[in-house]
Amino acid sequence: MVVTGTDYRAQVLEHLPEMPLENLLVEPVARDTAPAVLYAALRIAQEDPQAIMGVFPADHRVTDAEAFDRLIERTISVAQKTERLITVGVTPTFAATGYGYIQQGAVLSAGLLPAYEVTRFTEKPDQTTAQQFLDTGLYTWNSGMFVWRVETILNAFKKYQPVMFKQLSEAIGRRGQAKLREVFPQIEKISIDYAILEKSDRVAVIPAEFGWDDLGDWNALERLLKSQGENVAVGRHVGLDTEGAILYTTNGDDLIATIGLDDVVVVRAEDVTLVVRKDRTQDIKKVVQRLKAHPELERFA
């Protein structure tokens, strides 16, 4: 089952032609991950109320498939035996400031891949705090991947997001897209982390290493394409005294020229040019929000 927005429906069908159409859930408008998860959970529950549900973002990269398979088998096993909301934790390899962190508590289930009680979520700490987390050995990155019994997550929505649960369950119960298009814009825009996981005392984490990377950030391009050169460039680039730069153009005929720049991201896409320090890429969303706030600039967002 895939949950996506109207803008990406055709692309999903192109890449997954074998997927039954009834397994493609299209959100009328984007409302972050909590409504998307609830939408899918309600549809799954209609087919199998006892199902185990996994949540996997589309913009992640996994290089160790065997380790990932073992991890998912383990999360399913724990989810089947408990009423816990299982988060997939990634063992951190550096003090990242662009990821959320999960603090591990008491051991809930021992074994080769232990499950721990979650004591705290921290969203994108500063560099000093991230290094402190790394040094303790008690924190994992929050991958944004989850496994749980569909009954468990629905009960959590009933408890912590009763309005959202009522809105979506009534809309989906009618089996019509018209009601869904009417209701979805009214739903609060909120992530599953803030809506459910940070409120619940029934969350567990299973840390693991499986060659994970989050491709939702421009810095990921450097990790994927870094060579022996000083910069990473997709498209034409000429640089003078430029080091540690990420340069990207969507038009093969365009040229990006840089002079005296270090550790920056430069993106040229049609009629928009973005220049940002690599340590500030998380703030791109703020710029997009500003563009959307001005009608004359909204088309650039």
Give a written overview of the molecule:
It is a single chain. The protein has 301 residues and is α/β, with parallel strands linked by helices. The protein has two domains: 2-214, Alpha-Beta Complex (Spore Coat Polysaccharide Biosynthesis Protein SpsA, Chain A); 219-300, no CATH class. 34% of the residues lie in helices and 29% in strands. Strand 1 (2-5), helix 1 and strand 2 form a beta-alpha-beta unit.
What is shown here, in short?
One of its GO terms (biological process) is GDP-mannose biosynthetic process. One of its GO terms (molecular function) is isomerase activity. The chain is an alpha/beta fold and 301 residues long.
The whole-angstrom Rg is 21 Å
Number of strands: 16
How many structural domains are formed by the residues? 2
Largest sheet properties: 5 strands, mixed, barrel
CATH architecture tag of the largest domain: Alpha-Beta Complex
Proportion of residues in helical segments: 25-40%
Order of H and E elements = EHEHEEHEEEHEHHHHEEHEEEEEEH
In what range is the share of β-strand residues? 25-35%
Could you give me the name of the CATH homologous superfamily of the largest domain?
Spore Coat Polysaccharide Biosynthesis Protein SpsA, Chain A
Q: Give the CATH level 1 class of the largest domain.
A: Alpha Beta
Average pLDDT value? 92
Uncertain runs: none
Strands side by side in the biggest sheet: 5-8-6-7-9
Question: What separation lies between the terminal Cα atoms?
Answer: 29 Å
